[in-house]
Amino acid sequence: MDRETQTPTPSSGDHRKQGGGRGGWITFPFINGTLAGLTLAGFGWMSNLILYLIQEFNIKSIDAAQVSNIVNGGTSLFPILGAILADSFLGCFSVISIFSCISLLGTGFLALTATLDSLRPEPCNNGSALKYSICKAPSKLQFLVLYGGIALAAMGVGGTRFTLATMGANQFQSAQHQATFFNWNFFTQYTAAVVSSTAIVYIEDNVGWAWGFWICAAANFLALAIFLLGNRFYLHDKPQGSPFMSIARVPVAAFKKRNLILSSMTKDYCHNERNQPVDYVEAHHQYHVPKNSFRSKMSSVVPGNGETEAQISPDSARIQGGWTTFPFIAGTLMGSSIALSGWANNLIVYMIEKFHVRSIDATQTFNIAAASTSLLPVIAAILADSILGCYTVIWMSSLVAILGIILLSLTAMLEPLRPAPCQNGSSMCPIPSKVQFSVLYSGIALASIGVAGTRFTIAAMGANQFEESKDQRIFFNWFAVTLYTSMVLGATVIVYIEENVSWTLGYCLCFAVNVVGLAILLLGRRYYRHVKPQGSPFTRLAHVITATILKRKIPLSSRAEDYYYHKDGASEKGASMPTKSFS
């Protein structure tokens, strides 16, 4: 993006003195506070939506699950729209502000349906054999307020979900600071998701739906307030205009010039070295003749070296990392995301229809699985950074996920692994045996653990393939597009197959795409840049705490030359005096 302010000097330490001191780590509390509040609000109402529709609006379980699937698809599709609006027209700040207000309005409508008796139908005995014939259906007005609130809240969640991450990364110039920000961003997001999926869901189930939804609305309002309070500190990026105009020019120009004959003279072609201006290229005549092979075109320049094809030796051509790795990482992400969306989005319906599990128990199982996929990525990140490395964690987690999906597929394929069928809603349905429950829950557990291990460890691995912050930003943009496109495909195509063709075929497709994703990951191994694990962070943390305790009574020196400070990779002496404040 073109920035409104100048590029900061390295000595600024990413505090960005230009542009009125905007950007840098001073914006971190505002952006992460906003993320925490919006995540609490979003997961608070989405995690328990199916149960709310069944208990309070007398909606059939399969219809409630379909509504939930549409919501999940919408929150996976709207981030793409939010990204286009942010980059092309409005900017990140405006998009986040607008969609946060939309989310607040939708959450408010949901809270009103839980608070006012006139906005929901009369209660009936949930679980009765005559439930669907004696329970009163919601009126048109009640449906309008309910679905209007769900639509607005889902739209708001989608519009802010990862636009916040993009805006946060844009506050920093160095790739190292951006990587640190993304680590804390993911940690905040998953911590808030776990808290919301447990604490708020518990309040909704045991205290009252109104209390739970109003807490979500309060969290959303607080997040919006925090975000607006930080406006004077943010570094704002200028929108670049519609990307579709640039895309349209390419096929139009290619069509007009389709009959042109290519010249064989090198002087007729310009090759721009990495990060060199056009006048530099013209002065040094860095030209080369284009070839018909995609391989020759991609290998003509090694990312980061700025060397032409004639200057590259066979050994240097094997440099790892860069955009060569992107198809492998994106393919792996797509396979795991389609598989996750395919089995998770329809899990509640599967448990109710095939295992005769009560709707409230099926929803609680789903919430536990969702919370696990939000909590376990933190553990996976620690293992990747400290012991095993990203690549090893990803392929091991993919194997665990595949094993879990195999077990789920077997429950759908083999009749001995599920109870005998009965009419949905009947009180005479046979209960699953211990073996059947063991296979089912083992499959869910393994699939959830596998998803958590790959879900965003692959994002960290992808970012590690690039040294330039600009390349990392582009990677995360395409990462988000790939992730949400895959989630939409899983939530629509595979869910449709499960409901209208067969559960076995749907789960087998999840297995197949997950295996293909793992195969793509393994095929790209020789191209990846592997970052060595740094050892356990808890050891260093323990050293700091121990040293602090042991030296707690040592008097501080009043001489500046007795202290060191770290500045942009160099340690200097006599730089600063310690103070009694953290600032």
TrEMBL record:
InterPro entries: MFS_trans_sf (IPR036259), POT_fam (IPR000109), PTR2_symporter_CS (IPR018456). PANTHER family: OLIGOPEPTIDE TRANSPORTER-RELATED (PTHR11654). It comes from Corchorus capsularis. It is found in: Membrane. This is Proton-dependent oligopeptide transporter family. The keyword Membrane applies. Residues 1-21 are annotated as: Disordered. It comes from the Eukaryota. It is a multi-pass membrane protein. The chain crosses the membrane at residues 30-54, 89-112, 141-160, 181-203, 209-230, 328-352, 364-384, 391-414, 440-463, 475-497, 503-524. Residues 1-12 have a biased composition (Polar residues). One of its GO terms (cellular component) is membrane.
